[in-house]
């Protein structure tokens, strides 16, 4: 497992931490493989009932590391990114996101698959896919309009607008907003403990009914998005837009968001 993905088992819960703070936790292909491995192991462990996903250093994730992303065939059918996307989407464990700081690109789309999302006031969400010449992924073209309505989904996707934590909560993407990282940690500790105190079979059955991330419809949309994304990724338009954001170009960083 990549050292930039930390997996910490606990009593009934697994904490998965993205740990690349010097790059705002921007994700590489190696990190996607490690994330998929962590989620896959949790899925086969009957003792794990809750997965807690978080970042380090004041970031959730700034999205894809564009240097790494451009060098890879990033959404090929059996590649690391899509392997992680499918693994998380099919997870039957309760997924709790602990978001502090930027959650951009895939950092936002994966939240649509989480059962509970807790965020600090300073957190920001965004989907700058069209800005980069590609399209949203992770089934988000289906899940986002269901969550926030088609008009708001269009605004967020077409313009790549960022959402503050308070607005994200109002729209139903974030469960609760906390004032700072310390309060966030304490609240997630409390909520995870409360989940683990619930009757496990009843909770699992309720989750299966409420959660639609792993349904055939969503998994089919993930495949459609992946095909279009891959076509877009090799286009001159996308390469030009992404290259313009590489380090040294207008002071930008090598992350999706």
UniProtKB/TrEMBL annotation:
Give compartment(s).
Peroxisome
Broad class of the protein's primary localization: other
What enzyme category does the UniProt record give? lyase
Q: What is this protein called?
A: Enoyl-CoA hydratase
What keyword terms does UniProt attach to this protein? Isomerase, Lyase, Peroxisome
Coiled-coil portions: none
The yes or no answer to whether the keyword Lyase is present is yes
Which species is this record about?
Frankia casuarinae (strain DSM 45818 / CECT 9043 / HFP020203 / CcI3)
* GO function term, MF aspect, one: delta(3)-delta(2)-enoyl-CoA isomerase activity
Q: Which PANTHER family match?
A: ENOYL-COA DELTA ISOMERASE 2, PTHR43684
Asked whether the keyword Transport is assigned, the reply is: no
Alphabetical list of InterPro entries matching this protein: ClpP/crotonase-like_dom_sf, ECH/Chromodomain_protein, Enoyl-CoA_hydra/iso
| Enzyme Commission no | 4.2.1.17
């Amino acid at each position: 497992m990549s050292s930039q993905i930390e997996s910490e088992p606990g009593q009934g819960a697994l904490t998965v931490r993205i740990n690349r703070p010097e790059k705002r936790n921007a994700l590489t292909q190696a990190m996607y493989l490690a994330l998929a491995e962590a989620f896959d192991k949790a899925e086969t462990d009957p003792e794990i009932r809750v997965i807690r996903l978080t970042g380090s250093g004041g970031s959730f994730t700034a999205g894809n590391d564009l240097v790494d992303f451009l060098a890879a065939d990033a959404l090929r059918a059996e590649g690391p990114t899509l392997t992680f996307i499918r693994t998380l989407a099919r997870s039957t464990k309760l997924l709790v996101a602990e978001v502090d700081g930027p959650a951009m690109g895939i950092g936002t789309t994966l939240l649509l698959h989480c059962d509970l999302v807790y965020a600090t006031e300073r957190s920001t969400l965004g989907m700058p896919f069209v800005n980069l010449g590609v399209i949203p992924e992770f089934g988000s073209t289906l899940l986002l309009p269901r969550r926030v309505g088609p008009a708001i989904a269009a605004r967020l996707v077409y313009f790549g607008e960022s959402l503050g934590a308070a607005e994200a909560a109002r729209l139903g993407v974030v469960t609760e907003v906390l004032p700072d990282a310390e309060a966030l940690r304490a609240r997630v500790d409390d909520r995870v403990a409360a989940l683990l105190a619930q009757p496990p079979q009843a909770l699992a059955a309720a989750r299966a009914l409420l959660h639609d991330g792993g349904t055939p419809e969503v998994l089919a949309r993930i495949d459609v998005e992946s095909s279009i994304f891959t076509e877009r990724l090799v286009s001159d338009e996308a390469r030009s837009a992404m290259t313009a954001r590489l380090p040294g170009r207008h002071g930008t960083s090598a992350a999706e968001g």
